[in-house]
Amino acid sequence: MTDTITAPTIEYLLLSPLLVVFGAAIVGVLVEAFAPRYLRAAFQVPLTLLSLVAAFALVIFVVVKDGVPNKAAAMGAVAADGPALFIWGTILLLAFVSVLLIGDDFVPSAVAVPGSVEEERAVSEGAAHTEVYPLVLFAVGGMLLFAASNDLLVMFVALEVMSLPLYMLCGLARRRRLLSQEAAMKYFLLGAFSSAFFLYGTALLYGYAGSIDLSKISTSLSSVGGQDSLLFIGAAVLGVGLFFKIGAVPFQMWKPDVYQGAPTPITALMASGTLVAAFGALLRVFWVALGNLEWDWSPVVWAVAILTMVVGAILAITQTDIKRMLAYSSIAHAGFILTAVVATAGAKQNSLALSGILFYLVAYGLTTVGAFGVVTMVRDPGGEAWHLSRWAGLGKRSPKLAMVLAFFLLAMAGIPLTSGFFAKYAVFSAAVSGGAVALVVVGVVASAIAAFFYVRVIVLMFFSDPAADGPSIVMPIATRGVVGFAALATVVLGVFPQPVLDLASKAAQSLFVR
Amino acid sequence: MGETFVFWVLAVVSVIAALGLVFSRKAVYSALMLGVVMLSLAVLYAVQDAPFLAVVQIIVYTGAVMMLFLFVLMMVGVDSSDSLVETIKGQRFWAVLAGLGFAVLLALGIGNAFIGPAKGLAAYPQNVPSLAELIFTRHVFAFEVTSALLITAALGAVVLAHRERLTPKLTQRDLARQRFKEFARTGRNPAPLPGPGTYARHNAIDKPALLPDGSIAAQSVNRYVARYEKAEGTLPPEVAQALESDSEALELEKE
Amino acid sequence: MELYVPILVLAVLAAGFAVFSVGIAPFTGPKRWNRAKLDAYECGIEPTPQPIGGGRFPLKYMITAMLFIVFDIEIIFLYPWAVTFDKLGVFGLVEMVLFIVTVLVAYAYVWRRRGLDWD
User: Fold this and answer.
1) So where are chain B's domains?
2) Chains within contact range of chain B (3+ C-beta pairs < 8 Å)
3) Chain A: nearest CA to B127, how far in angstroms?
4) Which residue of A has its CA nearest to B121?
5) What is the pLDDT of residues A247-272, one digit of tens each?
6) ipTM score of the complex?
7) Choice among A294-308, B230-244, C75-89 with the minimum mean pLDDT
8) In CATH, what number does B1-78+126-141 get?
9) Is residue C103 less than 8 Å (CB to CB) from chain A?
10) How far is it, in rounded angstroms, from Cα B103 to Cα B107?
């Protein structure tokens, strides 16, 4: 009993973006504890934004200093490799713009019954839940870790750290509070269910491989024999947990309800950041841990991808609510990205597919944050105007805003000269060279269906007469900046995508650390 | 031998408790039955040489999670029952079908799995120290990140359940001032009522306090007990007399 | 297995004490019957009428319950740490202090928000 345990080595520099985000979140909680109410927002907003910027700068610093790292940091718990750093940068950027969208979207007092005297009183006292900022930071920290976890235990902890604050944030919308609370409840119950699936899969894979390390699971695929049912059930159940997080059909049920009910800035964060993080984790599990099992999972992911694209695109047509429509479009986009997930072959093909996915995630993330930013601007007296009929004639009332939204929608449809075109091109060409031609055909058809409902919104905005009591346009400076930035990014990535494509392919070059 | 014995005893106990959990009509009974199931599991873990798991099972599950279950039951109302109306037609049928299908699939799959010799246990002979070694070396990052989860939980509880006080709280001083103001207005005694049993031989609740002259302090008579005693006819006459002669006490009773 | 002998002894002692106390009471205590003793509380405090649906707990217990869970989980990590404290050395101490301080932040927050005040 006298022998000592040697202290673990922790690469603080490589982990610094994560540590900064978590540290800022904890400082944010301390601000909540000790700052008087009227000062809290003045501390929280700069703290949150600065920490995200600092973390982003650290990601760049790490790459500039020693080149793209390719090692498992913190005793092999966190993978610091090209894709991880690229995804970190993407998530931090998307989180930054999503945080800028936060305005008066949050409830002043979550305990007060909607519409009660008590609530009015909380409003007049200037109460506000500035806790949302540390919560967002915790969620972002979880996303960073989720996409970079190198074993299933860390991945599970990260999944919870990411999801738990989001469950809560979903229920804090200021307006349409019952809808918001219902969304939080649904997200929580289904999310907890999917976490349980994830954990069950982890346990079964541990039973199979005797390790939760992604790379050790991969090596045990060739060395362990006779326990295939553990492996297959484990992989399938783990897949359920991951597919839930990206919202792939048939685990997409939560997405429209949650995206609709959540405060719109949080919807933007979920539609961009969570999706990026979940794809990072999904790729790690399927490519690193189960990479040698490809012949077995590939048909399943094929089916899921086809279902996701088709169901997402078709159901989006029937929507009359802009947030639900964007949610279904997010489901369809998850399907488009999945086409590249199955396009694996040799290392070269893999890095091609990976770089396509990374580019897609950046392009789609920025576009979707921009679109949700526009949603926050169009207001009825009772809150944001979600029903599409309210958007009729917006092009005549506010041509600039309508044009920006139209542009985002065209980017989502994948029209040339927008970022969406090159994103789709990147994943589809990777899928074609990976032999998934049939998937690409389905993808193109689904894109065409999707284009129909995007164009329908555009037609509605520009070619119908505005209602007499149409919604008013509220343009806070930060939101305007976010929408402008997203529009600019969509243009630049659509006209001149090469730098980001190069960056993505450089990040994807050495693939995931093993 | 001992292990098998414990297993069979606990198997019976936990299956009966689990059946009770499902078939109890009262939710609180179900929760207590769940507690029995969890405790049996803890003992089974202990018998299987997993002391850490046994301790966690008792501290976290039986101690904390069970308590949370009970708390939620109390919050929702012990007697409240779920609405059994199917909101989606045929939902229950399909849910049962899918659940059974999944269960059969899992049972067949895992039942047929050949489980090789345990690897993890062989490498780490001592349960708790080995776990500590893993937590503080290989998984130290996950361990520290867990604290983020705990902070989120506390934040969530306060945001969702804590009502921030918008008016200042009355202090003892304010309350005393109120009492004396009322005394000035109505003459109501500002002091607390005398407790039972003072100067008396017993301090039981049904023994009124005695004044220094040996008479009964009417205000110390517990009305609730006295009411029952009156109905039963066991109220001591001297207490009844004291109650009648005390006008203030009667007034209090009216309130 | 001998690991559990003290626990078993303690459990037997506790159970024995409980049974003894309940069993001895009828023989030693005075017996003055009053119907009030059959009511809830058994002590002469009038039970307030129960609302329909049974008495419902107020939501503010939630914070207490949640804090309890938070510290419960903390204890779980303290247990293996304490068992191997001498082997872990300074690094273990630093990590544990970091963890406890982080969780204390949550506690400070609840405390400052008057989540610990009753009423």
Assistant:
1) 1-78+126-141, 189-254
2) A, C
3) 14
4) A210
5) 998 999 999 999 999 999 999 999 99
6) 0.92
7) B230-244
8) 1.20.120.1200
9) no
10) 6
pLDDT tens-digit series, residues A358-377: 999 999 999 999 999 999 99
Instruction: Give the Cα-Cα-Cα angle B111, B112, B116 (nearest 5 degrees).
Output: 95
The reply to whether residue B158 touches residue C79, judged by beta carbons under 8 angstroms, is no
Pairing between strand A71-72 and A383-384?
A: unpaired
CATH number of C2-112: 3.30.70, 1.10.1790, 3.30.450, 1.20.58? 1.20.58
Is A2 a residue whose pLDDT tops 60?
no
Average pLDDT score, chain A:
91
Quote the tokens at residue B129.
């120290």
Spell out the domain ranges in chain C. 2-112
Structural domains in chain A (count): 1
Task: Supply B145's token pair.
Answer: 């990140």
> Would the CB atoms of B161 and C63 count as touching at under 8 Å?
yes
Smallest CA–CA distance, residue C14 to chain B, in Å, is: 16
| Token pair listed for A252 | 């997409």
DSSP A484: H
> Residue B210: helix, strand or coil by DSSP?
strand
Average pLDDT of A203-209?
89
Interchain pair A77, B141: CB under 8 A? yes
DSSP letter assigned to residue B205: T
Closest by CA position to B239, among listed A376, A291, B228, A40: B228
pLDDT band at B254 (very low <50, low <70, confident <90, very high): very low
Chain C residues touching A3 at Cβ < 8 A: 87
